[in-house]
Design brief:
The complex is a heterodimer of chains A (about 300) and B (about 210). With about 300 residues, chain A is α+β, with helices and mostly antiparallel strands. In chain A, about 20% of the residues lie in helices and about 20% in strands. Chain A is globular, with a radius of gyration of 19 Å. Chain B is mainly alpha-helical and about 210 residues long. Chain B has 11 helices and no strands. In chain B, helix 2 packs antiparallel against helix 3. The two termini of chain B are about 35 Å apart. The C terminus of chain B is likely disordered. Classes of the chains: A alpha+beta (about 300), B mainly alpha (about 210). Chains A and B meet through helix 3 of A and helix 5 of B.
């Protein structure tokens, strides 16, 4: 089946930037203090977003205002409300993502080329933070496997390493945040090829707000949120398990796999239950965040208590 | 300045000021204005204010001496009780809104998570101090009252450790409170070496007069 994409027009060409900014200030002025802090939530509308069969059904979507005002993005501050205030400093112009390492067709993508690699889908996923809170978000993107297949990993590639942007001067230093920058994450290649692993460009039908990891991030719904790396600039196919930021900073608390697992206790937070933002009572946390049918086979025979 | 410190209004003013963080939280909760995770906001705010009030309480003794404002002693008990008040709200937030009074859950948390163990300890140490803060207890305990109330040093130190163990990676705030506490404690050492005689804050200015030799 051939799915025709819309004409290749960058959203900034459709509406003059001044008018666009004007619209923003009009909106902000009209709704006054209500929009404070969430003003960055209005991204560009994404075109031709398709429903995905991999979408999660039966969940109430978390209000976008919660998803844009309560973030972990330590580069822009270590309190939950900091990123919404500070992430406007993120420079996303001329964004490039280098896909490299053990592959036959390494390539540096600009954002437009990357977004055109496959049709953008809407996928509702549960998102569970290691800090025992969760949200339900309609993300927009396509399976990471599409990108990895495009660069043709060779036989030696066993893992994928990801790196976030680090823009010194506008971001916290590693010393201030207490974790190493640039932020790094990693997956085993078969995890990365699982169709649930989403290369994400938007949410709620609009491009990603900066605090949520603009312009491109991962979403791995069966893993704790910190695995879903934001603002990606580098994707590298490698042979050995790559170092990852939180595991480097505190190896006894954060492992490489970090699958959502109510049976593996964390020294800080009981992982047996979680608070869905907007709900008063806590709910039970599900194994693999409820995505066991799709991902449990990846970990067959592994001791998940050891490989936390 | 001194006249104001002696006045009734000063106490009322400080009381209302100390209550303000709680009132703002209550107002925020009423208006649904505590962010995406209100329970977490309430937990953090009440905890931070408990620690701050512990430090305010510990500021009184060195401030009296360094600023020559002996009347400040009138406010120490109130500040200490506010530390207990915010600590109690902090504990109740955790027990109710986080654990829903589930005894197994609470017990598991206390024994498994060292930052919660520390928090419990810091609060427990405040309990006897709050109980013995009345005139009657000051009179009954006499000299031992002051000894007992030195527990606040331990409570504050453990509260800082609780905070330090709680944060994931950014240790700047807990370190800041730790530095303030260290400074406040060092000022005491300096004081007792310099002028050991200026000690008896309670005896001199306690609301009940204690006859010498009693």
């Amino acid at each position: 089946m051939l799915i025709k994409n819309a004409a290749d027009i960058h959203s900034s060409e459709i509406t003059p930037k001044a008018a666009y900014l004007n619209r923003r200030s009009f909106l902000a002025a009209a709704s006054g203090a209500l929009l404070l802090g969430a003003a960055d939530a209005q991204g560009a509308k994404l075109q031709n977003v398709q429903k995905s069969p991999l979408t999660t059904t039966g969940e109430k979507i978390t209000p976008v205002s919660d998803v844009t005002s309560y973030n972990n993005f330590y580069e822009f501050g270590t309190s939950k409300t900091d990123p919404a205030k500070n992430a406007s400093r993120l420079k996303t112009d001329g964004w490039k993502v280098s896909v490299e390492g053990l592959c036959d067709k390494p390539r540096v993508f600009d954002l437009d080329a990357l977004m055109k690699l496959a049709p953008i889908e809407e996928r509702v996923y549960r998102h569970r933070c290691v800090e025992a809170w969760s949200i339900v978000v309609p993300w927009n993107g396509y399976s990471l496997s599409t990108l990895l297949k495009a660069v043709e990993p060779n036989a030696k590639a066993k893992f994928v390493a990801f790196e976030s942007v680090y823009q010194s001067g506008t971001m916290l230093s590693s010393f201030q945040a207490g974790i190493e920058f640039p932020y790094r994450e990693g997956l085993r290649l078969d995890e990365a090829m699982n169709p649930l692993a989403l290369l994400c460009f938007g949410m709620y039908g609009e491009s990603l707000p900066n605090q949520d990891g603009a312009p491109v991030r991962l979403v791995l719904p069966w893993k704790y949120g910190f695995k879903s790396i934001k603002s990606i600039v580098k994707i590298r196919l490698v042979e050995k398990q790559p170092p990852t930021t939180w595991a480097m900073s505190n190896p006894s608390e954060y492992g490489f796999y970090s699958n959502v697992n109510p049976q593996v206790d964390h020294p800080r937070w009981s992982q047996g239950s979680e608070r869905r933002l907007g709900e008063f009572l806590k709910r039970k946390t599900l194994m693999f965040n409820g995505y066991g049918d799709q991902v449990a086979s990846l970990y067959q025979g592994m001791d998940l208590k050891k490989n936390y | 300045m001194s006249a104001f410190l002696k006045s009734r209004w000063a106490k009322i003013f400080l009381f209302l000021l100390s209550l303000l963080p709680a009132l703002l939280l209550a107002w925020g909760a009423y208006n649904g204005d505590l962010g995406a995770n209100p329970v977490e906001r309430i937990t953090h705010r009440t905890g931070t204010w408990a620690l701050r009030f512990l430090l305010f309480t510990l500021t009184i003794t060195p401030a009296r001496r360094l600023l020559h404002l002996l009347d400040l002693i009138r406010f120490r008990r109130m500040l200490g009780l506010f530390a207990f008040f915010y600590g109690f709200l902090h504990l109740m937030t955790w027990m109710w809104l986080d654990k829903f009074f589930d005894p197994t859950e609470m017990w598991n948390d206390v024994v498994k998570r060292r930052f919660i163990t520390a928090g419990m300890l810091a609060f427990s140490l405040m309990v006897p101090l709050a109980i013995t803060s009345t005139k009657g207890w000051i009179r009954r305990l006499g000299r031992r009252w002051q000894q007992l109330h030195r527990l606040i040093y331990f409570s504050a130190a453990i509260a800082v450790i609780h905070y330090y163990w709680l944060v994931k990676s950014d240790i700047r705030e807990p370190l800041f409170y730790g530095a303030v506490l260290t400074a406040l404690l060092l000022l005491r050492l300096y004081k007792s070496r310099q002028a050991p005689a200026v000690r008896p804050a309670v005896q001199q200015h306690s609301p009940v007069s204690i006859p010498p030799g009693s």
